Amino acid sequence: MTASTTHLRIHQFAGLQPGPRLIILGAVHGNETCGTKALKRLLAELESGTLQLERGTLTVVPITNPLAYERGQRQGDRNLNRNLRPNDAPQDFEDRIANVLCPLLAAHDVLLDLHSFHTPGQPFVMLGPRDNNGTLEPFAHAAAEERLAAHLGVSRIVEGWLDTYALGVTRRRERYPDANPLLLDAAYGIGTTEYMRSCGGYGVTLECGQHDDPTAPDVAWHAIRQTLALLKIVDLPLAPPPAEFEVLRMQDVTDLEHADDRFAQPWSSFDRVNAGELIGRRQDGKEVKADRSGFILFPNPRALPGNEWFYFAEPSSREIRG
Q1: Is the pLDDT of residue 176 over 80?
Q2: Confidence (pTM)
């Protein structure tokens, strides 16, 4: 599938019966192409009539960041899935994409955002907060979002995204006050799902596997069909959710400080670490150790200085019911 850096290619299907408005995104990060491949398969099914839209509205954006996709890298000028919001004075390519993407998200009820990750690991879902009236991420659709997450076909779920980012931003402000202003912005953690929730909808990010895992597009395709079935947009049988879920809560994020910072071993997401275990070393030789037992998430050996190097998670008490 080709991409243009002058426009977004958006496919929309409107059922003749009322129903929810669903939007599905691929390649928000340009080197995460499993969603693009799965959405291409979906579009072929819809165009051929193999799959029939019955209700509601389905909007598909197979390549959400065409500049990053064209380059085969995570971002174009910056990370589209951070600081996502409309901008009256766009400064970079991602700002211009956001000015199209944000109104599009706001016009829908539900979002499925398809991603992949750097190192080998099991697919998982990123889930939003529980219902709350707080100031960081107030929310009122936790039950519907949990039900969506439960039916995507994976048994591992992670929560705590925006809380962790808020902690990371606070730490950056203290340690690196002269860093890129975007990295110090209180809205740094806002990506597609966070923006969707701020507009009154709900949505999840599905991490379908490692970038080059040949099964990742199939994971994405199955999740798409499950979402269409769950929302009754298409008449498909709905597979039951897994019998049990492993739910983890993100607790902390550690940034890469220097290009020569190195991991102590080739970590993968959800590798267990024990309190005091060596995770990596800074360029100056300083050791980075786990301050308690838990799990490594999103280890990125190719992170840019000032950006997220890895995350830390612990088991969550949250119960997921399909």
Answers
A1: no
A2: 0.93
